[in-house]
């Protein structure tokens, strides 16, 4: 990741899925042929802040960066990465079934 500033910090990240059936386990870029659900910037100004979302098959990565002005080198950078695992309908229904079996008097939630 690099901003539009002439003396920008350059960062990157790599991520992987363990025990995957696909041939792509280690990623470090987002390309159209990578079978990602989606990827891109949710918001940014190109220089001081940005929020990016990468939706892989099993999880979503959100990267956020912000620059605080000052210091001897143009500012201080903070970068946060959040990973959220997607729950498949099969896993969710199995978990709900186990919860209902352990507490037979509980009523299922209807939306």
From TrEMBL:
Catalytic activity: N(4)-(alpha-D-Glc-(1->2)-alpha-D-Glc-(1->3)-alpha-D-Glc-(1->3)-alpha-D-Man-(1->2)-alpha-D-Man-(1->2)-alpha-D-Man-(1->3)-[alpha-D-Man-(1->2)-alpha-D-Man-(1->3)-[alpha-D-Man-(1->2)-alpha-D-Man-(1->6)]-alpha-D-Man-(1->6)]-beta-D-Man-(1->4)-beta-D-GlcNAc-(1->4)-beta-D-GlcNAc)-L-asparaginyl-[protein] + H2O = N(4)-(alpha-D-Glc-(1->3)-alpha-D-Glc-(1->3)-alpha-D-Man-(1->2)-alpha-D-Man-(1->2)-alpha-D-Man-(1->3)-[alpha-D-Man-(1->2)-alpha-D-Man-(1->3)-[alpha-D-Man-(1->2)-alpha-D-Man-(1->6)]-alpha-D-Man-(1->6)]-beta-D-Man-(1->4)-beta-D-GlcNAc-(1->4)-beta-D-GlcNAc)-L-asparaginyl-[protein] + beta-D-glucose
Record InterPro entries: Glyco_hydro_63N, Glyco_hydro_63N_sf, Glycoside_hydrolase_63
Family classification: Belongs to the glycosyl hydrolase 63 family.
Taxonomic classification: Eukaryota, Metazoa, Chordata, Craniata, Vertebrata
Name used for this protein in its record: Mannosyl-oligosaccharide glucosidase
Keywords in alphabetical order: Endoplasmic reticulum, Glycosidase, Hydrolase
Entry's Gene Ontology cellular component terms: endoplasmic reticulum membrane
Bilayer-crossing regions: none
